[in-house]
Amino acid sequence: NVSNKNYMLLFNTQSFLDPGEINKEVSTQLDLSQPIPFEALEKAKYLKAVAKEVLRLFPAAPLNGRANEYDEVIGGYEVPQNTIAVIPTARVHRDVRFYEKPESFNPDRWIDQKHHPFAWAPFGHGVRSCLGQRLALAETHIALAKLVKNFKYV
Questions:
Q1: How far apart are CA 19 and CA 22, in angstroms?
Q2: Could you tell me if 75 and 102 are in contact, meaning their C-beta atoms sit under 8 angstroms apart?
Q3: Which value, to the nearest 10 degrees, does the dihedral of the CA atoms of residues 132, 134, 140, 145 take?
Q4: What does the alpha-carbon distance between residue 138 and residue 2 come to, in Å, rounded to a whole number?
Q5: What pLDDT, on the 0 to 100 scale, is given for residue 20?
Q6: 140 CB neighbour count, 10 Å cutoff
Q7: Burial profile 36-63: b = 16 or more Cβ within 10 angstroms, e = fewer
Q8: Which residues 6+ apart lie within 8 Å of 4 measured at CB?
Q9: Which of 92, 20, 22 is CA-nearest to residue 50?
Q10: pLDDT tens, 64-115?
């Protein structure tokens, strides 16, 4: 999945990314000549929005499964213990109930907008979500910033 994101970022950015916006943010807010403090990454709203939108379209975990511990009744249906439920994360991320024009790449949808808390879950959700989520996102933000800084999109 890392390869998918690298491909998306490296070879398709000119078709959907506003290079002016992200270049301005990277050049004014991030000093890439030294280690980047986590706080500086937190302020890079557009950079984070681009990474979040890539992960929405190409989630690290396109499916997420869980098994129930007990016999349950859900929505009037009896669900026996150890039944595996699969959550199609990739499908949820492209659902029109949660995202306007879900097939299009639009990082602006993440700038100062609220979303359903379970509508974006590329690393899973809750107590069983990916332990490395914060590190993976920080690495993605730094890699994207360095790509923007060191390459010119034409």
A1: 5
A2: no
A3: -150
A4: 14
A5: 74
A6: 23
A7: beeeebeebebbbbbbbbbbbbbbbbee
A8: 58
A9: 22
A10: 988 999 999 999 999 999 999 999 999 999 999 999 999 998 999 999 889 9
For the chain, the first-to-last Cα distance in angstroms comes to: 26
Q: Which of 94, 95, 107, 137 lies closest to 16, judged by CA?
A: 107
Question: What letter represents residue 20's amino acid?
Answer: G
pTM: 0.80
Contacts of 60 (CB under 8 A, 6+ apart): 1, 122, 123, 130, 136
Distance of CA 121 to the CA centre of its chain: 8
Rounded Cα distance, 107 and 113, in Å: 11
